[in-house]
Amino acid sequence: MSTIPGITLNDGALIPQLGFGVWQVADDEATAAVRTAIEAGYRSIDTAAIYENETGTGRAIAEALANGTVSRGDLYVTTKLWNSGTRDWSGEQGRDAVLREFDASLEKLGLDHVDLYLIHWPRPAHGTFANVWKALEQIKADGRATSIGVSNFGPEQLTRLLDESSVVPVLNQIELHPYFPQEELRAFHAEHGIATEAWSPLGQGGELLAEPALVKVAEKHGRSVAQVVLRWHLQSGVIAIPKSVTPSRIRENLDVAGFELDAEDLAAIAGVATGTRIGPDPQVFDWN
Ligand code: NAD
Fold first, then answer.
1. What are the backbone angles phi and psi of residue 194, rounded to the nearest 5°?
2. Is the pTM of this model over 0.90?
3. What's the average model confidence in pLDDT over 37-64?
4. With contact defined as beta carbons under 8 Å apart, do 97 and 87 qualify?
5. Would the CB of 199 count as within 6 Å of ligand 1?
6. Which of 20, 85, 100, 178 could join 37 via S-S bond, C-beta 3.0 to 4.6 A?
7. What strands lie across the sheet with 114-119, from one edge to the other?
8. 172 Cβ below 6 A of ligand 1
9. Ligand 1, closest atom to CA 80?
10. Contact by Cβ (8 Å): 176, 21
11. Whole-angstrom distance, CA of residue 96 vs CA of residue 215
12. Whose CA is nearest to atom 13 of ligand 1?
């Protein structure tokens, strides 16, 4: 039923190119939002331990599985390891901590496996991400995460994983929107068979969606700016996970088939790039 295209990851698994993000959605609200999303046709949900809504998200998934809206095999569930705080993520104890965090996420989600497990943040100054990655390799080997990847990694951290591990992250989830198109990092990913997943794909819904150049493109196609931006992600080969708790917007953000951005549109969108992030720079920022 879905018209969402898929992207084949470097381990052979298929991920829907458009998913549903639930950052900043309270746990009880997440159930309604994810329910609406699945009913609307989303088949990929992006949560994280730090969002504190894995339980609410899992509740909506359980409902959808129980009432037959979707089968587990048709659903793509991502969660992320919050490898931060004061805990020591080095050595054997660090790896054990990852396994415990993963168990807790699975339990909250009410699932026996996830489709994708990500290291949420590289924390380069600590240098423990390569050790943490070994635990993710174990989780994948045990079949409890079909695929493993990273988030907010830069070329330096990715290179270290490529050098030290035989398991290449399937994707890197990074801040990416027309203001901050991340061309260099995307090229690095492409060179190494790593897919690019965009967080805050709508620029968190602020001024980006009122940009005159984007409004013009939207009017030309009889679409909303959000739809144009999501179409841009899809045509760029990027996986996007927009968030909304408003049912009409949840549906609107999925309705991005049936039109194509042409070279003129793409040039107009490229023209709004400022190179400025909304979020912190993962190369220097640490959540502690
Ligand atoms: P987003 O770019 O998806 O923007 C969401 C906001 O845009 C909504 O809160 C709403 O205000 C507005 N919006 C949504 N649809 C709209 C529409 N059709 N019309 C007008 N306004 C609309 O921002 P996000 O939530 O930051 O990012 C999406 C997802 O990415 C998150 O929910 C989360 O799953 C993930 N994420 C990951 C990280 C990370 O570090 N890995 C960081 C941030 C977000």
1. -105, 125
2. yes
3. 98
4. yes
5. yes
6. 20
7. 20-21, 44-46, 76-81, 114-119, 145-151, 171-175, 195-199, 239-240
8. no
9. 41
10. no
11. 50
12. 205
Mean pLDDT of the chain: 96
Strand partners, 180: 177
180-191 pLDDT, tens digit per residue, is 999 999 999 999
CATH architecture of 6-203+238-259: Alpha-Beta Barrel (3.20)
pLDDT of residue 1: 41
List Cβ neighbours of 215 (8 Å cut-off, separation of 6 or more): 225
Tokens at residue 182, please?
Answer: 């991340």
Q: Which residues pair with 149 in a beta bridge?
A: 118
**DSSP state, 227?**
H
Using a 10 angstrom Cβ sphere, with 0-12 exposed, 13-18 middle and 19 or more buried, the burial of residue 278 is middle
Q: Ligand 1 pocket, 178 CB below 6 A?
A: no
| 197 within 8 A of 171, measured Cβ to Cβ | yes
Q: Is 122 in the pocket of ligand 1 (CB under 6 A)?
A: no
Nearest CA to ligand 1 atom 37: 199
Q: How far apart are CA 164 and CA 162, in angstroms?
A: 6
What are the strands, taking DSSP E only, across the chain? 6-8, 14-16, 20-21, 44-46, 76-81, 114-119, 145-151, 171-175, 195-199, 239-240
pLDDT in tens, 131-143: 999 999 999 999 9
Residue nearest to atom 27 of ligand 1 (CA): 200
